[in-house]
Amino acid sequence: MTRTTRRLVRPLGAGIVIAGLASGPAGAVVGGAEVPAGSAVMVLSSNGSLCTGVVLAPDAVLTAGHCAAPNLEQRVHYRDEAGQPVLAELKARAVHPAYDAGAIAGRRRSIDLALVRTAAPLPARLAPATLSAAMPRAGASLDLAGYGAAKPGDPRSTGTFRSVALPVVEPHGPSRILVWLRAAGARAGACAGDSGGPITSAGGAVVAVSAWIGGACGGLTQGVLLGPQRAWIDRTLGGWGLAARWQD
């Protein structure tokens, strides 16, 4: 990891976050285009930070581990049929046992994943995503999406779900845990607020979730592959009486 590696949490005051989200279309994902949110929601923390999450069951959301800090309260954010913001309370959360909050500074391996469970079911229109255990290699094209900033340092550019197609790169050789994405030309990629966002294959199945960027927004983006963590995902959801949808 480089010294410029940064997580994709978007730190904002809680009031600023909600005001910005309620004001209408903004931006997210540097170089991306607005797309339907589908199975994506936002995960907001009591310190004002913003992350993206992926619905896996009517009341379960997958996100990045650093988006579910145990010393903070989280809420799942979505919009109702009238377009008004809703903050859903949680009744459970599980951070991957191999998540290491100090991994970036210490250059250690970390499985940056968490599952949160809402106290009440989410709207049916937020259909659970399909997950994939695929292991994409260099040159493959994946879609990176999230609610993060389209303009670095501009909190008003968060809150719209956007996506960009990026090629897989292997700066450290093939990995059985992580995937890296980087645009070949113009700057494009994840930014603050995109942590926990889906990284999908051409068929739409989620193969990884975003975890951090190396350097400035739109640079090298790292995601945590879901296939190697399938046992933990299935075991955690099973303990809640739920199950994820995996692509055969």
TrEMBL record:
<keyword id="KW-0720">Serine protease</keyword>
<protein>
    <submittedName>
        <fullName>Peptidase S1</fullName>
    </submittedName>
</protein>
<keyword id="KW-0378">Hydrolase</keyword>
<dbReference type="InterPro" id="IPR001254">
    <property type="entry name" value="Trypsin_dom"/>
</dbReference>
<dbReference type="InterPro" id="IPR001314">
    <property type="entry name" value="Peptidase_S1A"/>
</dbReference>
<dbReference type="InterPro" id="IPR043504">
    <property type="entry name" value="Peptidase_S1_PA_chymotrypsin"/>
</dbReference>
<dbReference type="GO" id="GO:0006508">
    <property type="term" value="P:proteolysis"/>
</dbReference>
<feature type="domain" description="Peptidase S1">
    <location>
        <begin position="29"/>
        <end position="238"/>
    </location>
</feature>
<dbReference type="InterPro" id="IPR033116">
    <property type="entry name" value="TRYPSIN_SER"/>
</dbReference>
<dbReference type="Pfam" id="PF00089">
    <property type="entry name" value="Trypsin"/>
</dbReference>
<comment type="similarity">
    <text>Belongs to the peptidase S1 family.</text>
</comment>
<feature type="signal peptide">
    <location>
        <begin position="1"/>
        <end position="28"/>
    </location>
</feature>
<dbReference type="InterPro" id="IPR009003">
    <property type="entry name" value="Peptidase_S1_PA"/>
</dbReference>
<keyword id="KW-1015">Disulfide bond</keyword>
<keyword id="KW-0645">Protease</keyword>
<keyword id="KW-0732">Signal</keyword>
<dbReference type="GO" id="GO:0004252">
    <property type="term" value="F:serine-type endopeptidase activity"/>
</dbReference>
<dbReference type="InterPro" id="IPR018114">
    <property type="entry name" value="TRYPSIN_HIS"/>
</dbReference>
<dbReference type="InterPro" id="IPR050430">
    <property type="entry name" value="Peptidase_S1"/>
</dbReference>
